[in-house]
Write a structure and sequence with these properties.
alpha/beta, Nucleotidyltransferase, domain 5, five-stranded mixed beta sheet
Amino acid sequence: MLGWLGKKKDAGWTAIDVGSDGVHGVSVLAPRTPGDKPRVVKCGAMPGQRLDADTLIRLARKISVPGCPWTLPLSRKEYNLLVVQEPTVQPDEFEQSMRWSISTLIDYPVDEANIAWMKIPTVTLLPNRPPQMYVVVVKSEIVAWYSALFQQAKVPLQAISVRETAQRNIAVLGGGPGEGTGLLSIGKHGVYFTATFNGELYLDRFVEESLFVAPLTDAAHAPIEEERACERIVLQVQRSLDFISRNLQFIDINRLLMAPMPAYPDMGDFISQHIQVPVEALDLASIFDFSQTPELALRENQAPYFFALGAALQFMENKA
């Protein structure tokens, strides 16, 4: 997982996610033994609240666990996720070369950016293709704002992550050994599709919020608008699957997992009718131990916690 405030592997992490419906958080501990599920030991929400020091203090009382540092995935509008060619330079020149590569891809001075990166591991699988990297770019002032907020609340923020790596972490748990995993999550702020293989993120697609169903005052037109949104989502997913079959032939995606959705449950049925691979609803209870947080065992309660749960999986292996 990407982080700008430090990298540390612990027995557990606390993560929060900020959405239009409030702030949701979880504390997740690593499995006791190999093969066990990660344990979600606490969860809590501050419905309708924005993230400020008071909200953070009150939420911390609900979900803090001794020894668990905190993380949060940024809002999609707070960062850029770019794909660039891996620089062929000496290690001490790597960051500067990376900054030069992205300088024309962002709309503010690169000196004002915090960056983190991870490789797209195709060197052995596609040796004739120049190696590429994911680069996450966020304004330094955003990182500083979150750092100051958590310090004010006396909450130990250890890392800042992004939504694509949070989703990747869940896909790794939901996929089988050696299986290419397509995971689709549909929310109020956009649609995320990720393709993972052997624990690595190989492809991401984000459908802008404007392509999702907006709140409608005319209920009679809601089914029509919902179907149009489904058609746009299906088109993006099918394009992504086609890209994988043409360019990442070593990834065989034989099913598409759908994360819990906060609304429009019929979308799953619509998408399954128009996608070439089988579509399966992902119940997070199949990959997390919710025995201490039984409310999350109900699939209808899982959607607001999806990205927080993924971000809290910092202790997993093979994470950048």
